[in-house]
Amino acid sequence: MTTPFAGANRSRFKGLRLIPHSQRRVALPCRTTSTLPLPRTRLPPPGSVPAVPSLAHRLLTRAIPALRGSSEVTDPEQVRRDVLAGQAEVEVAPSGRTVAGCDVRELDGHPFPVFEVVPRGGAPERSVLYLHGGGYVSGIDRFHWRYVAALARTAGMRVVVPAYPLTPTHTWRDCHEPLLEVFEQTAIASPGGVTLMGDSAGGGLALALGQQVVRRPGPQPTHLVLISPWVDLAGTTPGTEDARRVDPWLRLSKLRLYGTWWAGEDDVERPEASPLNGDFAGLPRTMVLCGTRDLLLPQVREAVRRASAAGVPVTYREEEGLLHVYPLLPIPEAKSALRDVLRFLGFEERQGASR
Q1: What kind and span of H or E run contains 308?
Q2: Cα(252)–Cα(258) distance, rounded to whole angstroms?
Q3: Confidence at residue 66, expressed as pLDDT on a 0 to 100 scale
Q4: Is 21-31+53-87+106-344 assigned to CATH 3.90.1280.10?
Q5: Nearby residues of 58 by Cβ (< 8 Å), 6 or more positions away
Q6: pLDDT tens figures, 291-321
Q7: CA 21, CA 338: separation in Å to the nearest integer?
Q8: How far is CA 235 from CA 118, 255, 256, in A?
Q9: Predicted TM-score (pTM) above 0.70
Q10: Residues 25-51: pLDDT tens digits?
Q11: Residue in 223, 200, 67, 212 with CA at minimum distance from that of residue 140
Q12: Sign of torsion over alpha carbons 240, 278, 282, 149
């Protein structure tokens, strides 16, 4: 949900065998049926991150429960008060240090702040619409901004970042139509195409928007990139209870509470809130990244299975022993993940532009 140092501002594969760690960097080919052949083994490239999580990752795993105050919900009203108090203190605009090497401006004409991040001196023709995570209760934090800036610098792309309304004050109904308009306007200004991308709650939001965009006339996303997406707000995907025991960060009772807030008066399993229950047919080429110490792992695997069964070309990266939204964290494994995303999007890392 939020990155670990931020303030209050977040297997059930039919026809697929879970990928062993030594074979985890694989692409699941597009098929029109739910029974897929086992993917071929692809050895990690020279210089890639070793199988054992890095020292930085191991230290972060120990620190997160203390830094985040990870605990289950005992008083929902107190959680609500804490969330609202935290939201009131947050500054959404980035500091210069978090977006070094990029120019940032706020775009006009939207009901909430929308920022454009471009590499300094660049005039990109391709864009990313990036939707931040945070459990729908927390805004953009410095780890989101650093990742967005790294993406803009390394790919030479324009990244559009909406600070969409948060729950419990708002629900998905307050966000979807304005965000669809942001997508259309971004596409009009991007002759090279637009990628829909998000992490955690933002990953679920990106999938939900993608499922709506592909059923509308007009511009379509060229790619979809989902980092540890939260796609089942009810938290009922089989395997979730087992996954919660190995995740030192996320708490299922909090996710379920936040999910009911985001759904509002609607059923929490409605596809707009829980896109795992939506229609995957017609989505563009999709990349999904997730670690195995992530409470969301079972629902991420199920989303990959359903997308593949619907004929979507899916590239899935499952990293053994890594945390929720690991590509955004200050760890060596994040650099490898960024290179994977760049290759998926058809870019090579620009010299001197790494994180």
Answers
A1: helix 297-309
A2: 10
A3: 72
A4: no
A5: none
A6: 999 999 999 999 999 999 999 999 999 999 9
A7: 19
A8: 36, 8, 7
A9: yes
A10: 434 433 332 333 333 323 344 444 445
A11: 200
A12: negative
